[in-house]
Amino acid sequence: MPICILQDIRKTFSIGDIKFEILKGINLTIEKGEFLAIMGASGSGKTTLMNILGCLDTPTSGKYILSGKEVSSLSDDELSTIRNEHIGFIFQNFYLLPYATVFENVLLPTLYMEKRKDKVEKRALELLNLVGLEHRKKFKPNQLSGGEQQRVAIARALINDPELLLADEPTGQLDSKTADEIMSLLRSMNEKGKTLVLITHDQNIASYAKRILRIKDGVIV
Amino acid sequence: MVLLFKLKIISQSIKSISAFKLRSFFCIFSITLGIASITTIVAATEGAYEKAFEIVERFGPDSLLIFGGGEEARATGQRQRTLTLDDIEAIKNSFYSAYLVVPMTAMRDLTITYKNIKYQTLVVGSTDEYSKVWSWPLIEGYDFTIDDVKGLRNVGIIGQFLAKVLFRDEDPIGKYVLIKNIPVQIVGVLSERGTTPSGERLDDRIIIPITTLMRKLQNETKYVSAIRIRFHDQQNLYNYVEELKKFLRKRHSIPPGEPDDFTIISPKEIVKFLVALTGSLVIFLGITGIISLVTAGFVLANLFLLSVKERTKEIGIRRASGAKKSDIMIQFLGESVLLTTFGGLTGFILSLISSRFLSLIAQFPIHFSWKAFVSGLILSWSVGIIFGLQPANRAANLKPIEAIRE
Fold first, then answer.
1. Nearest CA among A86, A94, A11 for reference residue A47
2. How many CB pairs (< 8 A) connect A and B?
3. Global model pTM greater than 0.90
4. Where does a domain end: B234, B260, B286?
5. Is the CB of A56 less than 8 angstroms away from the CB of B320?
């Protein structure tokens, strides 16, 4: 069963009178449980594609069906709810809140939904255990190494048990050994059934995926 | 449930308040100063009203006091003697509503002696109705009588403070004191009245028959210093002021255009005086308070705008994690309102402390009540909302993709 169906997705930006078409008709189907890498150079449109996949942005035209629901024309609030419930993000720069503890960072997405506190806290501990950082739960992000910070971010992405994980250059800030550890962790998530979309320009990182797509000048090649 | 859900977001506001300590400190500090002066104003206004009410009550809301000499003469400290015993009889006969018309003449700093204790005090000459016309009951003994007044007898009633100075623990009733060289027998003791706002001890006085004072101490047969009148119908008091003016001008043959040679003090005059006293301070503090509150508001808005810029990524990651625009709005507005609330509370405390000093140096009536507290709180919320709105709105409207962009 497909989790994402993109039909002729186009995205146009305009600066003054000049219009740039960043995505020029993307057609893509992502199956549930898939591990897909989207590769492309900078400016190829891969980040814009990820933003649309992650409901951070809406396409100028085209259809995007996420988990059987048409989302390309939803309101800002509705998109927020979808991000909260269906999507987990992992960013290149981790994006942890510097003044919150590891534990609080993992819990961040649960602030924006109604779930029982004891349940989500139990799950946060399980996830920290899973990424091997239970003993660091009271640390602040700046007390952690880059690899550890990314593990926290992965735990955060998983807290609401989303169907889709989006990782944008998740190893871009890490050395190759740590990068391998993070990729192995992500692969194990995929093996447990999570659909994983990886955005990268790095061939070695992309090789962890089961399917690789290349994007160039706004089209899949 | 929904409220609980918003509380989670407010808890984020609290976290960032403690995370961005310097910003929080400046915001709180600037609000504190503004709220402190505004709260003091409210308390001072309330204090003034309370004081005015108290003074009017004590003065007697149905009473007038007439002094000899016009307002200008009084202002320059001269005491002209223009009121006569005949005036008093005439007022008694012409104003039927005046149920008490009592003359008074005061002499300051007369030496009074008991045994070997000498003390300088205020000697008031009046009638048997003195304590009645001032609603000033005796706690011991009796008023002197109309016969004492008619007979120029050497009797007196004494204030609490003076009684303590002269008699210590002895019972003053029946004892003789010397005023200058005239022996006076104490027949009554007045109850305690305390101190006026200007610091005068009201209980430091002795009252003797006005006839005795005029003949034996002043060698005077005609003039008195003041007349106190009480009316049955309090609501017409200000009509009586006008009528009395006409009446006395006619009796004193003052041609039109010339100023009065007497001054009528009514409860209204007292309130006017007190309002003039507090008014200038209220205006001064009011302007300072409003300026500092507005300044505080701009400080807050600026620091928050900076903060929003600095925390773009935080906003981005919150939005990516599912925060709605309204959630971001609530968080930032929550931060600013919590900060101003905190500033409001510290401002109230500062105002409490500073007004202590104010009343120490200026005998300034200040009264703190829930009104001062609530108005301070409402003002600090308003500042928090008004000046926090724009930065919070900017934060809420950041596009998620722009917020998380490198």
1. A11
2. 73
3. no
4. B260
5. yes
